[in-house]
């Protein structure tokens, strides 16, 4: 019973305060002077009014934010779609730029050499080693045959190893199974160019006679003595010479001019006579 009385008493007091505050507000709004009692009540109620005003603003701000969530999500999704589209456009532009650069190199090569040239795209690589072999999108239907030389704008790539109707496997010059006749550009001394057995991406040059001399910085090109590569095709630069055990011969490490790790397009050569 006492609890009910206390609650009723509290409610009555609050109602009286609200009535007094409302009366003061509505009666004093048109008067320039207020009573001392009204001033005291205003001062007492000011912190409460301030608290309720802040709570009201916070609630309004929260409700506004909740109402904007849907539109913000839609705007965010639209912006993500635009970013994705721009990224795709930039990627396509970069691809076109690389293709144009490579085609310019191929055109320059065509001007210098009297050979027919088929431009091919690299569509596959050796699953076991990056410097072993590649697959190109030209084959028997395009008159590509085994043994044909494969070049890039920078130099020797390798030779066609096998063909299907629409593809060909190319053994790279960096594969240890590869053997290409080469020579020193300045002296004409003949060497045999093979791939490094360690698959390091380097080439090995071995002299074909005891009179051959090699120095660091020598440029090696194809000799033209084989039935595959024409004479003078760039191969690489000598970077290190390792003498044999009894100093009777040597092996030279050659850095190829072609970046075999980034091959995208190559071309297959065939002579005009063919």
**In CATH terms, what is the architecture of the largest domain?**
Beta Barrel
Number of strands: 12
CATH class (first level) name of the largest domain: Mainly Beta
- CATH topology of the largest domain: the name is Thrombin, subunit H
With strands numbered from the N-terminus, the spatial order across the biggest sheet is: 1-2-5-4-3-12
The domain tally reads: 2
Largest sheet: 6 strands, antiparallel, barrel
Helix content: 25-40%
Element pattern in H and E: HHEEEEEEEEEEEE
Mean pLDDT: 79
Low-confidence stretches: none
In terms of DSSP E residues, the strand content is 25-35%
CATH superfamily of the largest domain: Rod shape-determining protein MreC, domain 1
Secondary-structure class: alpha+beta
General form: elongated
Radius of gyration: 42 Å
Ends: how far apart? 117 Å
Total number of helical segments? 2
Which helices and strands appear, and what pairs or packs with what?
Elements: H1 2-28, H2 36-112, E1 115-125, E2 133-136, E3 149-151, E4 156-163, E5 168-172, E6 179-184, E7 190-195, E8 203-207, E9 219-222, E10 234-243, E11 250-256, E12 265-271
Antiparallel strand pairs: 1-2, 1-12, 2-5, 3-4, 3-12, 4-5, 6-7, 6-9, 7-8, 8-11, 9-10, 10-11
Describe this structure in words.
By secondary structure, the chain is α+β, with helices and mostly antiparallel strands. The protein has two domains: 1-24 and 32-89, no CATH class; 113-271, Beta Barrel (Thrombin, subunit H), CATH 2.40.10. The protein contains two helices and twelve strands, in the order H-H-E-E-E-E-E-E-E-E-E-E-E-E. The strands form two sheets. Strands 1-2-5-4-3-12 form a six-stranded antiparallel β-barrel. It has a six-stranded antiparallel β-barrel with strand order 6-7-8-11-10-9. A hairpin with a 4-residue loop joins strand 4 (156-163) and strand 5 (168-172). The longest helix has 77 residues, at 36-112. It starts with a helix and ends with a strand.
